[in-house]
Fold this sequence. Notes:
Elements: H1 11-14, E1 23-25, H2 28-37, E2 41-46, H3 51-61, H4 64-73, E3 75-80, H5 85-99, E4 106-110, E5 116-120, H6 134-147, H7 149-166, H8 180-192, H9 209-222, H10 225-240, E6 254-255, E7 263-264, E8 267-268, H11 269-286, H12 289-306, E9 316-317, E10 320-321, E11 324-325, H13 333-340, H14 344-350, H15 371-376, H16 379-400, E12 408-409, E13 412-413, H17 414-430, H18 434-450, E14 461-463, E15 466-468, H19 473-490, H20 493-509, E16 511-512, E17 517-518, H21 543-558, H22 561-573, H23 575-580, H24 586-595, E18 600-606, H25 608-612, H26 625-629, E19 635-641, H27 651-657, E20 668-673, E21 676-677, E22 681-682, H28 684-694
Parallel strand pairs: 1-3, 2-3, 18-19
Antiparallel strand pairs: 2-4, 4-5, 6-7, 8-9, 9-12, 10-11, 13-14, 14-15, 16-17, 18-20, 20-21, 20-22
Helix pairs in contact: 4-6, 9-10, 9-11, 9-24, 11-12, 11-17, 13-14, 17-18, 17-19, 18-19, 19-20, 19-21, 20-21, 21-22, 21-24
Amino acid sequence: xxxxxxxxxxxxxxxxxxxxxxxxxxxEEAFRAARERDCPILVSIGxxxxxxxxxxERESFSDPAVAEFLNAHFVSIKVDREEHPEVDAQYMEVxxxxxxxxxxxxxxxxxxxxxxxxxxxxxxxxxxAGLPSFLDVLxxxxxxxxxxxLEVNRQAAELHQLLSEASRQIDGGQEQLDLSVLExxxxxxxxxxxxxxxxxxxxxxxxHPSTVRFLLTRAAVMESKSCLGMAVKTLDAMALGGMHDHxxxxxxxxxTDQHWLIPHFEKMLYDNALLARAYVEAYRYTQRPxxxxxxxSTLDYLLRDMARPGGGFYSSQDADSEGQEGKFYLWxxxxxxxxxxxxxDLFADFYQIRSNGLFExxxxxxxxxxxxxxxxxxxxxxxxxxxxxxECRATLLAARMERIPPSRDExxxxxxNAFVAEALLWAGRVLSEPRYLSAGETTLNFLLENLWPGQKxxxxxWYEGQGLxxxxxxxxxALAVALTTAYETTLKPEYLQHAYRLAEMILEHYFxxxxxxxxxxxxxxxxxxxxxxxxxxNPTPSGTSxxxxxxxxxxxxLAEPSFLQxxxxxxxxxxxxxxxxxxxxxxxxxxxxxxxxxxxxxxxVLPTEASDSSTSSDxxxxxxxxxxxSFLPGAILAVxxxxxxxxxxxxxQDRIFAHRPPVNHLPTLYLCQAGGCQPxxxxxxxxxxxIATHAKHPSSY
Length: 701
């Protein structure tokens, strides 16, 4: 008989609905039951695409003996970490404090007051590799609860105190950012860089899109060959390896080996959004076709497999299908030969398809070791070969679509969708793809209508027709950043109005003036033991770094000194992390490096008659396409026809364009940088020349 999770909206919770465990969802009903029974709470946290979560569900939570013991001695709560990242964050800290590492599934034991006293991750069904069995752990916890309650309560009190202190600890404290920390971060990244396989540190290797974007920006600004080399090697290695899905597009979660060949097969929305954005930026800087191709195939994957009809993008795809990890993505040489016929040898040669593949005898297509051969061919031969390989990939994709697909988690998360919207909007401009621009705007409007309806109550996530959970800082900040990008790429002032309102909301409800950083939650967020500061990337950009990005962009565009000062203080507060643990604050490094360019605002005013006479459905003038296709770090654009708006409906637009008329009835650029503005630049050719002057180009790579 199903337990109470059968009615949950979360896919991850419903995956446990047939367990014999008497699961509760996170909430007051479970807390009250624990208080009434005076028993400990087990909180088990995971997510639907988590392979080891499924393993533990099969091995332990489906075991009648384990369930009987749990039901007799615990109140058991199952939590979807994507639905409740604030719950996951506070208890993950416990696991890291106790064992030095974390991960999922995360299993935490609490008092009825929700204070943790013990935590771990995966526990096997029987003793294995030095790990106790899960039932051994449960019995030890019950023994301590029944016979050493004072010790348990003391441990819980100490952990609660440590949590409270750790949640507010900032390794910085400066008022002004010393730009030497960016140089220190570069050195630290170079120390951990893998020159053979790309990326940082040993396997397993995770993508760090913001860190790569920091390196690209620093390479451009400082003419650093070291930074450019690290960025390009990492981007190439990820693009050519098996972590990149060469057949269907997109990226798996991480690679288990040094050379990005063997992935952990789950696919996450945030990874693909942030990686697409990184490859778009890499293409802007280097103009390498590979990076545009990877960005396109990643976004096409999202639009094909992850887009919800009617708007929004789903959260993830599982690693497993038909009970086997990676089965949906694996190929045998025999199957490739059957499907491709005479072209099978060509495909197998370039994509490393062998009779005995790298993953349990099966093959993961990759271009490691063969892409350079492709580039070395004469252009006419390369074009023909690339077309043949593309047709082979299309044939294999069609065959793969007939397989039983991995499970898909169909909740809509606000921040992750905002990342997608921003990636689509930038790709639409940089790659000259109107369909991406349209999809980005559609996504953003869906979020405004459903997760911030009427611009009143905001939700963290959304299931068909219903918003759930209060927003986190990441939600509000990511949406505001995407809205700012929408203003820059679509020229629609209503997006700027929304972004500014969210910036004010963040400063009012999330800002901690003592550290100059920002809390993860609002003051009255339910179930939070202590408010945590959100300043570390994990693995999405931290809330504080997103806010700093937002305030810099709006501050320069609107000449808002308070925004700029707060952004500067927030980045300065993270200076210790930047110099010593740069991968943990990659997005803050990116924003700080953009600030150091220095930042510039490009305000272009069009003569009203020129705007009125345009026959294009795209409001962006053709001559400004170069702004987006050039690499202009630390820049923001505003374009409007003078008098094409009214101050009553577009107050912020009026602030930007007041006292900035078109000169001599010509398109006019007002370029401001480092607190000063240049004389106005008039005419298409002169504006194009300014773009060319400020654009960054790599000397070599």
